[in-house]
UniProtKB/TrEMBL annotation, chain A:
It comes from the Bacteria. The keyword Transmembrane applies. This is Uncharacterized protein. Keywords: Membrane, Transmembrane, Transmembrane helix. The keyword Isomerase does not apply. The chain crosses the membrane at residues 16-36, 42-62, 83-104, 110-129, 136-155, 161-180, 262-282, 288-307, 342-365, 371-392, 404-423, 429-451.
From TrEMBL, chain B:
The keyword ATP-binding applies. Pfam families: ABC_tran. InterPro entries: AAA+_ATPase (IPR003593), ABC_transporter-like_ATP-bd (IPR003439), ABC_transporter-like_CS (IPR017871), ABC_Transporter_VariousFunc (IPR051782), P-loop_NTPase (IPR027417). Residues 22-248 form the ABC transporter domain. Keywords: ATP-binding, Nucleotide-binding, Transport. GO terms for molecular function: ATP binding. The keyword Cell division does not apply. This is ABC transporter ATP-binding protein.
Length: 467, 307
């Protein structure tokens, strides 16, 4: 029983906020069910709350277990059996107990509700183990947005079909099998990649929880690796030919950011463009589609790279001792400046990426104001990138703090984007655009310069982070 | 109860000693209130191999990292090549080779690319030596570092550290993951490197046989201090291990000048002695009505007794 309790505590220890929130949602859902009358209404509200809590909890649980399920862990006595017992207890907590309570209170459609709760839990778990599982549900959400009438009709029919319940249970089983199989399989660990790399999916993963790549994923990884090696060789040849500060900086970038050379960026944009095209084509068929939103999405995608900088620089500390000795800086501040200069390239890369997606969106949606979208994207992505890089370079070291900072940056950038759209629309390209650039780039540059100064002031760290 | 007497200062050399490569004065370092280094004073002369010994957790890794500026110190001063270590000091770092305990290289890089990258920054890099060692130590240049075994990574870290032919080589348990062949090959390379004038090696290890092979000076880190730094030959010449046996046993150890440590085990009394003539021991055995056995302690014996 102690082992099961330890498994249950795992996600809460790693993500205390999630643990508290998920269990508060569980209590709220049970409260809704018991105290709101008629109980059918309380159950409807409670089921929604419970499904949300369950989804979050199981997403976190899967992320934690994926890190814990290493080959060495399977050597623990009866680990798989205890894991199964924990799974059963977890299912009883999140599905069985609420369903039984609902049944006792005479709530209708309990079996169907229970199956949906089970599906929510399994969906969260599967997405936590294999990120690509979310892609299976994404088209359904897009479809619901595109054809809400059809989606509502399907739901109505499903409610009355006797096949719905077994099909939902079957789907849950299949998803569970999909999640558990790779988690419990003993495989060779892939070679670590640069903690700063931005290979889209799995970008935020740590070494232990890196997503297992599919055959296609491995092929892409191979291409990116080959491109990175060639870029490094070219940078080395150029540096040897005529050493200069700029070429030295490029060399350091090729080491720290192996997948941020022109060819790799092109390949990454192309891959992402396929998904972006799919989304835009479907989104176009919505009743109310504002083409300008494409620029906002593009900026968001570009900014998604920056949180990895804070995490990656922390994880990379021990590796950086070797770079420190290799670079042999005159002062510690010079070394810190070298790193900051090397990372600054991520800002133009982010801007170019955002512009590329915006252009794609403009072409696909035949946007009415392409100039406005491009101008606002250019300014906001650059300003937002500078701020994001600044705060992730010197910001909080703990996960919660970093997430809060990231949320603040994203919200601020989105607010700036829409304010920029309004400003340029109202005052024109010259005055509106000029004012937007002055404010946004001024703020971005100011933040970056202040952060750079602070980063230079700090002593370099080479000790491995504790967690 | 065992005691450890302080060693007397080594006799003053007739010739003027070389300028120390490293001077450490009053260095303190604590981790979350736990003091690991408690005012370390240490001088490392040029042209010597220093074996840094100490038990697990004694602070060897911390001390070595502090010396190179890889960990901040709380108090004290460090001088490297005659200049304070308050800043890295540019090219000075290129005169240092370092093999860390956890060879955290860049796992996403290939061996060849990693060495080429590193070599590009060094004014002095022995390409022939690096190529020879890669071949002899069977390191595939096309292999990703992340795919290498622990031992292979350690070999690569050693190649990277000695290819610039550094004046000071700092090795933190460099042979822990090496097989016996690789360990011997490494020691041979190390000794060859040391043949250069003024080359100094600081070598933290638990494999005392390697230090004996290198005829190293032994520095013992204990209780947050360097207890002594002395040539191994001198230690061996001046220290001895005597075992006195008598059926009645030993309620207490007899007082004898020169005893560094005494230990009673049943009918045996074990004494670690410094500069105690054999005649004095025979006299003691006669007085105490005991049999006497005098042994030449190995470095491992000394480590077990002193650390």
């Amino acid at each position: 029983m102690r082992a099961i309790a330890q498994l249950w505590l795992l996600p809460s220890r790693q993500m205390p906020l999630l643990g508290v929130l998920a269990h508060l949602l569980w209590l709220t859902a049970i409260g809704c069910l018991v105290w709101i009358t008629p109980h059918a209404d309380g159950a409807a509200l409670g089921a929604g709350v419970l499904a949300m809590g369950s989804w979050f909890w199981h997403l976190g649980l899967a992320t934690t277990l994926r890190g814990a399920c290493q080959p060495e862990t399977f050597l623990l006595p009866a680990f798989r059996r205890r894991l199964a017992a924990f799974g059963l207890l977890d299912a009883v907590t999140w599905v069985g107990l609420p369903a039984l309570l609902a049944l006792a209170l005479g709530v209708p459609h309990v079996p169907l509700g229970g199956a949906l709760l089970l599906l929510a839990a399994v969906m969260g778990f599967a997405m936590g183990v294999e990120r690509w599982v979310s892609l299976l549900f994404w088209p359904l959400l897009v479809l619901a947005g595109w054809m809400p009438g059809l989606a509502a009709a399907i739901v109505q029919d499903a409610l009355h079909s006797p096949l719905t319940l077994p099909l939902l249970l079957l789907l849950a089983l299949l998803l569970l099998r999909l999640a558990l199989h790779p988690m419990l399989r003993v495989v060779d660990r892939p070679a670590d990649t640069s903690p700063l790399e931005g290979l889209s999916l799995g970008r935020s993963a740590s070494a232990d929880t890196a997503p297992r790549r599919s055959a296609l994923g491995r092929r892409f990884e191979g291409w990116f690796d080959a491109i990175a090696q060639q870029a490094m060789e070219r940078a080395l040849a150029r540096y040897r030919e005529r050493p200069s500060a700029a070429r030295r900086r490029t060399l350091v970038r090729r080491l720290l950011l192996p997948h941020d050379n022109a060819a790799a960026i092109g390949l990454r944009i192309t891959v992402m463009a396929v998904f972006a095209t799919l989304y835009v084509v479907v989104a176009l068929h919505r009743k109310h589609f504002n083409a300008t939103v494409v620029g906002a999405y593009a900026v968001l995608i570009a900014l998604a790279r920056f949180p990895q900088i804070g995490r990656g620089m922390q994880r990379m500390r021990p590796n950086l001792a070797d770079l420190y000795l290799t670079l042999a800086p005159a002062t510690r501040a010079e070394y810190q400046q070298t790193l900051a200069d090397a990372l600054l390239v991520l800002v133009p890369i982010g801007t170019v990426t955002a512009l590329a997606y915006t252009v794609l969106g403009i072409v696909l949606t035949h946007a009415a104001q392409p100039g406005l979208m491009l101008l606002v994207t250019l300014v906001v992505a650059t300003g937002g990138g500078l701020v994001a890089l600044a705060v992730h370079l010197i910001g909080p070291q703990n996960t919660v703090g970093r997430q809060l900072v990231n949320a603040a940056v994203l919200i601020g950038t989105m607010a700036t984007y829409w304010a920029g759209v309004w400003l340029v629309g109202a005052l024109g390209y010259v005055f509106g655009g000029g004012l937007l650039a002055l404010l946004t780039l001024g703020f971005g540059l100011g933040t970056w310069l202040a952060a750079q100064r602070e980063y230079r002031r700090r002593a370099p760290l080479f000790d491995a982070p504790l967690a | 109860m065992a005691t450890l007497l302080p060693f007397p200062s080594p006799p003053t050399a007739a010739t003027t000693p070389a300028e120390p490569v490293l001077r450490v004065h009053g260095v303190r370092k604590a981790f979350e209130g736990r003091e690991v280094l408690r005012g370390v004073d240490w001088q490392v002369p040029a042209g010597r191999v220093i074996g840094l010994l100490g038990r697990n957790g004694a602070g060897k890794t911390t001390l070595l990292r502090c010396l190179l500026g890889l960990a901040p110190i709380d108090a004290g001063a460090i001088e490297l090549f005659g200049a304070p270590m308050t800043e890295p000091g540019g090219e000075r770092l290129h005169r240092v080779g370092f093999v860390p305990q956890n060879f955290e290289l860049f796992p996403w890089m290939k061996v060849r690319a990693y060495l080429d990258f590193t070599a590009a920054f060094y004014a002095r890099w022995n390409h022939a030596l690096a190529a020879r060692l890669l071949q002899e130590w069977e390191l595939d240049p096309k292999q990703k570092i992340g795919r290498l075994s622990q031992g292979q990574r350690q070999k690569l870290a050693i190649v990277r550290a000695i290819a610039p032919e550094p004046d000071l080589l700092v090795l933190d348990e460099p042979v822990a993951s090496l097989d016996p062949q690789a360990r011997r090959a490494f020691m041979a390379e190390l000794l060859a490197l040391m043949r250069g004038p003024g080359k100094t090696v600081i070598f933290s290890t638990h494999i005392t046989a390697d230090l004996e092979r290198a005829d190293a000076d032994i520095a013992l880190l204990r209780d947050g201090h360097i207890q002594f730094t002395r040539p191994l030959a001198e230690l061996k010449a001046r220290l001895s291990h005597a075992v006195l046996n008598r059926p009645a046993g030993w309620p207490t150890a007899p007082a004898l000048p020169g005893v560094i440590k005494s230990r009673i085990a049943g009918a045996s009394l074990h004494l670690l002695l410094e500069d105690v003539p054999a005649e004095r021991l025979h006299q003691l055995a006669k007085d105490e009505d005991a049999s006497l056995r005098i042994e030449m302690p190995t470095l491992e014996d000394l480590f077990v007794e002193l650390a």
